[in-house]
Amino acid sequence: MLLKPRQREQILPLPVVLISTLSADGVRNIAPWSNVTPILRPLEDVILASWIKRDTLYNIRQTREFVINIPPARMAEAVMSCSKNFAPEVDEFEQADLKPRHSSMVKAPGVEGCLAWAECKLLEEITREKYALIIGRVVHLEGNDDFFNEAGEMDYERAEPLSAMLGEKGIRFTRPVYAGRYADYKEMFISKSNNSPD
């Protein structure tokens, strides 16, 4: 089946996060985001893409900080509440009936009830005509003790982090499941002994 290039987001599952920010005047904002990803492993940087006219982008430009909150599947309705185009002066924590969580390294609050919180500082903005790429550095990272082991690995089958498949007219919220195969990172590298002729 041939798809249109603009349908590129419909061919892969996307993460669903909540980006929380503060305006320069202290108004709290939350917005759902799927165009966000860590930049390579094991660096500390993340990147998110934003339309130019977004309160989240404006707040990040003003305060140079934001929090990436990882919601569980049970928060899908709250995520949709945060997706509405409220006026910039509206406190979206109140509108979505979400509780703020104190942050350690930034002024913007996190969102209580999430699985993890990445407090970020703005490093760089790359701007195009219709969108901007925000590169941030994680300055404080914390996970809910109920769903992470001592190595910092999420028990995703219990935690049920929210993800999504986008369609032509709407969104289907999903969550990851184990595919039955574990791979050690070292499997990706060919050792010299294995590559040498007999």
UniProtKB/TrEMBL annotation:
The keyword Protease does not apply. Keywords: Flavoprotein, FMN. GO terms for molecular function: FMN binding; oxidoreductase activity, acting on the CH-NH group of donors, NAD or NADP as acceptor. InterPro entries: Flavin_Rdtase-like_dom (IPR002563), Split_barrel_FMN-bd (IPR012349). The keyword Transcription does not apply. Residues 12-157 form the Flavin reductase like domain. It comes from the Bacteria. Its cofactor is FMN. Belongs to the flavoredoxin family. This is NADH-FMN oxidoreductase RutF, flavin reductase (DIM6/NTAB) family. It comes from Desulfotruncus arcticus DSM 17038.
